Structures are given as structure tokens and as C-alpha cells.
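Exercise: predict the fold of this chain.
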Amino acid sequence: MDMMKKGKLYLVSVGPGTADLIPPMAKKALQESEEIIGYALYFNWIQDWIEGKKTHSPPLTQERERAQLAIDLARSGKIVSLVSSGDIGVYAMATLAFDLMSEEEEFSVQVIPGISAANACASILGAPLSHDFATLSLSDLLCPWEWIERRAQHIAQADLAVVFYNVQSKTRQTGVYQIIKIMQEHKSPQTQCGIVRNAYREDQSVRFCTLEELSHQKFDMLTSIVIGNRFSKRKGNFLYTPRGYQQWEQATSLQGSNLPQKAVWVFSGTKDGNLIADTLYQKGVPVVISVATDYGKQHLQQQYPHLSVVSGKIGKEKRGQLLQQLSAKAIVDATHPFSRKMSQQLMGLSKETSIPYVRYERESIIQQDSIILCKNMEEAAKKALQQGSRIFLSTGVNDLSTFLNTEQKNETTWFVRITPNPDSLNKAFDAGIPSSQICAMQGPFSTEMNVRLWTDWKIDCVVSKDSGEVGGFREKIAAAQQLGIPLVIVQRPAVDYTVVFNTIEEIVANFDEL
């Protein structure tokens, strides 16, 4: 008679790692079951509900064996629970169990939902998944890597918030950084991100950073990464994504209605970029100038109130739509020499829209005999720590984490000069720089001012970028030489620009026939 008894298979979710987050349905299923199957760690969370029951715990790598055992026991008439952490239907055991079952099974099946890693991490961070979002596993054990990259590309292009599962293991160290690079190609570098390790477990840790800073972070298999969309915001120790995008629609409407048709779009953020736009305007060429921040817009409009300005990091997709809707005549890339990603995006838009692209690249004035030249920020951080202990950073706020995360001496003190806007100040504070070590002023700066500031702060090493004449680079060299302190300089990133001009006169002459 017992052999004719129909069994039951519960596919049970036990959440991220605490009994408080296990749903009552799971508790009921476990209590009804005769035998329990799962990874041994999960039993710690449900011990009170499975006392006296027969348990099976094949090792972590034997998922198929676990699922098959549960099915065999259910076929024999047993009431069985196959247990998985998180939600058993999300990157977990449910799909494997269904795959191994036949369509003629006589036992019944019930899936018990739970709190997935995505939900758990989102709740710890705040509410980053409040609008459309995706999840992506970075493990290529069950999915070809090229598929993972292709899916990441589509997620980034759609500007969806995303949660990365299976981020990094001992044998998969570099893949996550390749995926982050794909995100950076399409999302704003200031996109807000959260990193959660061991959500709702004893050694839980939480970090916040921007997408630009994410590639400098370290992870493991216990880590989940949440990347927001262009609207995601930080508020205190929380990250959230607004549900409605009405502000975006209003901004788009305002931008499109007040901007000239068939204009040359100058993408600026530098003094010489603003001068290019104004010179073209004075020659009668319709011009739109685009800057990254509202602070940049305010500063620009004080000097050039007659220019049409677009501000904000609106993303590649919307930027391309605006260029096409307004029949842009050309794209002038006058962004900072270190804005490599923005330059690549503009060249990509030029190719996609058939709008001509030209690059204004201010000339370098590096004197290699008077500086310590470095290829990137990581190298500059190491060189600076070798040279001094009171180090002045004139590299911008976005690279602070690279310097502060480099292994350093206990007596090292960092001083920074940043633009005077709330976003930059908040980033400096978040990085751990006290207000007494921050100079928030708009440059460029004279030799005399550099000398006075560095003397007052007793600076013994300065780090800067190869920003060129307009960026006050010559004055930094002169001040460092006068004080006899080492100057560490980061070289410009190599970019294969399609068309390059090195003077404003060349740029303007290029548009004489418009």
C-alpha cells in the first residue's frame, strides 16, 4: 500500500541567511516533509524546523545529485523538501529539478518563493530596483562567456539598473572587470552603485561608489553588485531609483524646444571648449554647448549668457536622439583630455548618426626632466607614496579612491583641490577626506597661489594630470620647482581620435563654410 502512495516535492526557498527572512510557507513545507535535501550550510538556518527528520547534504558542487535524489524520494512516495538559499527559482535548484523530472511524474510539486539575493541586497542599499531592472550572472560555468558579454551590452544600452550574481571566484578573477567596462561604455561614469557582501549574515559589509570607481573595487563569490540607472540617487547611506521619470521628460522637452536647429554641438567642460563655442557663435554659426553638470552650466552662463546650453549626464541614447531631432551639423569634442569615455561615446554617436566629428586636443607641455611621469592613476599613487607623506592631489575627485585604496604608510596625509560644487564635495567627504584638507575652488591657479597653498599645508609631493596650458599645468610645474618638491604627472589616456585639431583657429576655420 505504501508503494502506491503519491509523494510530494517541495522546492523551498530559505532566503539570504537568517530565519527571520524565511517565509511561513517554507516553514510549513519543512515541517510537513519527511526528508530534507540541501547544502549543509542551509540547514543552520532551518534547524528548529527539521529536528528529527532525515537530511541529505551532497557537497556544493553536486547540485544535479541533490535534485535527482529529491525526485527519486518523491517518486517513492515521500514528502520531500529540496532546499536552496535565496529564491529557489532564481539562479538556483528549481530549474534543475524541473529539468530532471519527466512529464509523467505522479508526485505533486510546489515551489515556495523566497527572498532572492537581488531583493536582499536592494533592501540593504535602500531601493535601487524600484523601476525596470535586470539580473546577470557572471559565471560562465553554465552559460558561454560571449552570451554574458552580449547580455551586459544590451542591459547597459537600455540603461537598466542591474544586479550581478556570481561576481568573482578564485578561477574567475577578470570577467567582472570586463563587464564593468561594458557598463562604463554606455552608462554615465557617475552612475551610483552598491556593493553588498554576505547580505543578512554575520559579516555583512556594504560599500557605495560610482560606476567610474567600481573597476577599482575588489569582490568575491559572496559579493553582489548593484548598478543603478541614470536616475539612481544617493541620499545619506541609501541608494534609490525613482519610480517616475517625469523630470526627465520635462528636461528633454525644455532642451529640445529652446535649442537651435542645424547647430554645431560643442561638448565642453573646459575653458578652451567654451571659447570655441563662443568664437563660432560670433562668426554666425549656430551653436549648442553641452556640459556635464549644472555647476558647469552656471559658470558658463556667467561668461557667455548668449550661448544655448545643455547640461547633465543624459546618456548616449538620449544624446543621440537630441542630435538627430535637432539636425546637428557637427560634433566638436572639446572635453577634458582625460575624458576618454566621453570622447569614445561621441565618436560612436558620429558613426551611428553620420554627423561629422572633430576633436580639439590641447597640446601637451610636459617637460620630462622636471617631473615624474606615470601612465595611469595606479602608478601615480605608488610613485607619490614613494616621494612624500603630505600629498596634494590635483587630479579631480573621481580618482580619489585609487589613491586612498593604495597600500600606504600610516603617516600619509592626503590633500585635494576640487571644483566647488556639492557633488564634488560629497565625493571627497565620502572618500574620507576631512574638510580641513580640501581646497574647493575653480581653477586654473597662478604659480603664486600654488606656492602659498602648498607651503601652508607643508606639501611634500604633488600629483596632477597632463592638463595642458589652459589647465594651469605650467604654473604647477613652476610652483613645484620653486618649492623643490616632486611633481608626479599622469599621462593622457591614448585615444584614437578620427579627426584632431590642436588650435582653436583650426577648429573655427573648419566651419567657415557652414
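Check your answer against the key: The first helix runs from residue 24 to 32.
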